Structure formats: structure tokens, C-alpha cells
Q: What sequence folds into this?
């Protein structure tokens, strides 16, 4: 399963052995083992710590609570993986809204060449308009939204790729 937390994508694998749940994140074993206590409640432990952990999920998210802290992980659908996993690539810029809102105006078109810090899209939230800008010069390769569309925060709005130059 792929999940998103703080704009990062993680691959999480769980497997059960002798009544204990083991977890790997991006291929690395997690130091804690999990023992199911009841529905949604687990005891996480290793050689030096024990924690009571609450885990629940719905169609879109996984919720984890322990030690007075709560975390929400977004489930990533297969077709969303490409968009989010490329975020740290300096050849791509994925324009995302910092908050839920509405698309007021799209200022670019697919295939259009743009400069660094070009205005890309205007989003309205709480009666305030915010212009989102590119962080690279390149080509607008995909626009995922339409004007007047309602959006959630952190969803991809526009994808920009650097032009590849041949030497």
C-alpha cells in the first residue's frame, strides 16, 4: 500500500507472524512489533518501549494515534503515484493548493512554455484569492483541474516539466 504524509509517498508492507504484526516502510523494517488488543487497538513494542496504538481507516485515509499524538495518512491510489512521487525531482514542478478552495482562473495552457516564477493558477479560499507560481522554467504538461472546480489541499493542479535540451 502507498500512503502520503507531509507530501512524501511511502510504501508500507504489513505481514503477520505468530499473532504479531510486522511492518516495513520503503523496504525497511520498523523497530516496533504490533500485537492486536482489540478492534483498532494495538500494543506496539520493542526491546525498550511499549505503546498503546489506535489505528483506524476509511476509504481515503489511515488514522494513527499514540502517546497523545494523532497522525493522518492519505491513501494513494495507483494512478496518483506518478504525480506525487515526482515531487522531489528538480525537473518537475507540481503546483498544489495549500488549502481547500475553488479554482478562479487557470493562467496557462497545456504545452505552453513558461518562465521560472510565472503565475500559473488563481485559487480562492475563504473569500481570498491566491495566485500560485511555478518554481521552474519549463513546459506545462498537464492541467488536472478546470475553472470553478472545487479542490482539496495538496491535490495536484498543474504539472510543469523542464525542457530537455540536447547537446
A:
Amino acid at each position: 500500500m502507498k500512503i502520503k504524509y507531509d507530501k512524501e509517498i511511502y510504501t508500507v508492507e504489513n505481514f503477520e507472524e505468530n499473532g504479531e504484526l510486522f511492518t516495513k516502510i520503503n523496504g525497511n523494517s520498523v523497530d516496533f512489533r504490533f500485537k492486536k488488543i482489540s478492534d483498532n487497538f494495538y500494543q506496539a513494542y520493542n526491546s525498550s518501549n511499549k505503546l498503546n496504538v489506535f489505528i483506524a481507516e476509511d476509504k481515503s485515509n489511515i488514522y494513527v494515534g499514540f502517546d497523545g499524538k494523532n497522525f493522518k495518512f492519505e491513501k494513494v491510489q495507483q494512478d496518483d503515484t506518478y504525480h506525487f512521487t515526482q515531487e522531489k525531482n528538480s525537473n518537475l514542478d507540481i503546483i498544489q493548493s495549500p488549502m481547500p478552495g475553488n479554482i478562479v482562473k487557470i493562467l496557462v495552457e497545456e504545452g505552453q512554455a513558461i518562465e521560472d516564477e510565472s503565475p500559473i493558477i488563481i485559487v480562492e479560499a475563504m473569500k481570498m484569492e491566491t495566485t500560485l507560481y511555478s518554481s521552474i522554467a519549463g513546459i506545462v504538461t498537464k492541467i488536472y483541474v478546470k475553472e470553478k472546480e472545487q479542490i482539496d489541499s495538496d491535490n495536484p493542479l498543474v504539472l510543469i516539466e523542464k525542457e530537455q535540451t540536447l547537446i
Q: What stands out?
A: The two ends are 40 Å apart (CA to CA). The longest helix spans residues 81-85.
